[in-house]
Amino acid sequence: xxxxxxxxxxxxxxxxxxxxxxxxxxxxxxxxxxxxxxxxxxxxxxxxxxxxxxxxxxxxxxxxxxxxxxxxxxxxxxxxxxxxxxxxxxxxxxxxxxxxxxxxxxxxxxxxxxxxxxxxxxxxxxxxxxxxxxxxxxxxxxxxxxxxxxxxxxxxxxxxx
Length: 161
Hints:
Layout: E1 13-15, E2 18-24, E3 34-40, E4 47-51, E5 55-62, E6 65-69, E7 72-76, E8 81-84, E9 91-94, E10 100-107, H1 113-118, E11 120-121, H2 136-148, E12 151-157
Antiparallel strand pairs: 1-2, 1-11, 2-3, 3-10, 4-12, 5-8, 5-10, 6-7, 6-9
């Protein structure tokens, strides 16, 4: 039995300080969901944001991630997961002293487009040697892509719901 052809989006991409690859795109699930693997450095913290089109479930493979939701922080180690419902503000913080590997599932699919629209293709699933420090133009581009995908940024890294 032959293996299915992988979607072109599946290669790793660098985004700011981390690397991500789409494991399953919406085109492979009939739009039901998508899944992406992230490798993030210690201390990485996403801006406070809210998804208006999809829910997000985060599963930790390695390291420790604290997901901040309105009902408080959820500290997740390997094998733990948390559901982040559509329309609920949240932020994720890497709280381990080593990189964290996580799987994020988005339902329905669509947000996985963030990877190819905003990312820089990478050869392998390793952290960028030099994290990107976006200038004003790049930051505007990232915010426009985020908004186009139905995500509102509510505050910078460290802002809590």
